[in-house]
Amino acid sequence: LDQQKGIALIRHGIDFSLEQGAQFVLLGSAQDPALNAQFWEAKEALAANPDAHLELGYDEALSHLIYAGADLILIPSVYEPCGLTQMIAMRYGCVPIVRRVGGLADTVFDANYSDRPFEARNGYVFDELSFDGLESAMSRALGLWQEDPDYFRQLRLNGMRMDNSWARPAQDYLNIYEHIRVR
What we know:
It is a single chain. The protein is 52% helix and 12% strand. It is an alpha/beta fold and 183 residues long. The strands form two sheets. A three-stranded parallel β-sheet has the order 3-4-5, with helices on both faces. Strand 1 (24-28), helix 2 (33-45) and strand 2 form a beta-alpha-beta unit.
């Protein structure tokens, strides 16, 4: 948990999810003592809520169980140079809700507003670093999950089929080298 990850939006996302009748699980830790204290307070405030669980710490095995069991993952980063979280989540069939920055913008394509073909759409994207922007994307995602499970399932499958390996970029480099060699 770091300012880079959009802490205020994550905290708002927890409350918004619960208001919409969804469940929310958070796994993370903060090195900043003030942020750590903020999330411990939130954990205590939500302790009696059966639809919320905050696990404050690092647990690689648990993270994979959460990916596998979750329908949606919220990644409202302020900036994100690469972003592995969304790629891992999609392999598990977890649909990402992301802010359009850095590597998130390169790998998550909006279910409703992308210019990509349907088969390449795999999540929900918002631009504005604001509660309204976050709520818009979350509302669309939760609405689809509730109202059109077949379409939601297809988003899951689209994300699972994405190839984020180095195979294609490596082949591009080989093609460039071969082109230069032939010349």
